[in-house]
Q: What sequence folds into this?
DNA sequence: TGCGAAAATTGATTTGCGTCAAGGAAATCA
DNA sequence: TGATTTCCTTGACGCAAATCAATTTTCGCA
């Protein structure tokens, strides 16, 4: 759901101050950026714009933490945000990263509860926010927004359930192999995967340790399925083989 | 989201042929049963009723399987349905059970994809179905339905992510303890938990084996945190202790 | 009520992987 | 650019939990 310079600012409406890298600096960009809003008419976007409030977070600051009341929708306009959870026993698990165009606020937006996860800005970040009550009114007024949000939620749910099943049933080696394959699907141009995060984060995301990731990658390399080109780059040599790890 | 005899058929609209156990046999019951619809006006429910088609599945039949196009919303009116997945390596993982009032159709309802899970009737079951296109029209016409579905989805997503984190970070013993506590929250009247499924299913749900469940329960009993009254009944003796397992 | 099948328990064994510890590579900052 | 910190890798070890196998218990059905 991230946005590149081709797809940014392509609606008829005015969109000032776009940067060369495709991100827009003004508040308005939040609306035109995100799939849940950018299908609307310019006039409707203007209306939504009047509701949003722009906030900035410095690297390291939390947008929300567990226990915080969840009454705000956050739309990322610049920067990078890490969503993670602490388990009952205190271990951290990475859920996802948010890039410009992504949103968070989660369930709590629709039921009156508190957050259970952390949202931490890992770069200096600016977000657009809408309160729950205003967002609910928007959903009632423009039902097509709901369909977009439902689509996004159902996709996340599918992903999450798939991840759950993998944790419940697959070995670490298999989880790593499947992750590589999914990275390849996204890039898909070459056979080379660029790992989108550090080993530490990847370990947290896959429910294992950096040590195990390192070891398993070496093992997979030794049987000829991949080649570790550099720290972050991995060449897939045998896709079918990987699928059967 | 299951429904008992107190809460069934309590709207002003007519609702014929209700059974003593609270389930209704006629098509209409599907609509009045489910939280996503039962807040509507009687006239609106009638309109929806005209769209639904009632289907019956015998015990063991699948409502859908992975690869099936997902273009139908299923609302359970009678019976019990098991949603489960097969991992890439072929192991089964239980996702959830559906009881009267619950619905499925998942993500696929909002993005044009195929199912990834199995939905199997484990009792003789009757469901009400609506096609995707008709359901989408309903959502656009009655935006309040979207809010209900969003609320349900976000709740499921929260649950799923919590489960993912547990699998990723907690030991089997802890997962079992947390499961018992959540069962207690639902019953909550006494300190006695009635396991809602077989050991086999529980193992599948918790990402472990029946052997491990059996062993761990015995261990937890030996340190005095619980008492195994019978096969399916467990008495919680020390809730705080369980939380720290 | 009793039989047979399925489910649950218990034991013995194996193994995957986390933990701890140390050395090397890479990134960050002045 | 060099120094310091953080990250990654490799090795040795221990443990949690899966697997395999054999009873025992429970439950569905005749």
A:
């Amino acid at each position: 759901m991230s946005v590149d310079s081709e797809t940014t600012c392509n609606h008829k409406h005015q969109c000032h101050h776009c940067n060369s890298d495709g991100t827009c600096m003004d508040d308005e960009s939040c609306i035109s950026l995100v799939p849940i809003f950018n299908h609307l008419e310019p006039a409707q976007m203007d209306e939504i714009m009047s509701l949003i409030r722009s906030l900035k977070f410095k690297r390291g600051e939390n947008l929300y933490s567990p226990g915080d009341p969840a009454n705000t929708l956050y739309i990322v306009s610049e920067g990078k945000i890490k969503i993670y959870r602490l388990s009952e026993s205190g271990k951290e698990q990475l859920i996802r990263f948010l890039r410009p165009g992504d949103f968070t606020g989660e369930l709590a937006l629709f039921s009156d509860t508190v957050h259970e996860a952390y949202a931490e800005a890992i770069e200096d970040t600016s977000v657009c926010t809408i309160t729950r009550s205003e967002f609910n009114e928007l959903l009632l007024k423009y039902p097509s927004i709901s369909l977009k949000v439902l689509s996004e939620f159902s996709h996340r749910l599918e992903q999450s359930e798939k991840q759950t099943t993998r944790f419940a049933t697959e070995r670490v080696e298999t989880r790593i192999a499947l992750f590589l394959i999914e990275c390849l699907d996204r890039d898909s141009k070459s056979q080379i995967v660029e790992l989108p995060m550090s080993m530490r984060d990847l370990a947290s995301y896959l429910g294992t340790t950096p040590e195990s990731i390192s070891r398993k990658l070496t093992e997979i390399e030794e049987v000829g399925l991949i080649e570790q080109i550099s720290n972050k780059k991995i060449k897939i040599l045998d896709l079918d083989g990987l699928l059967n790890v």
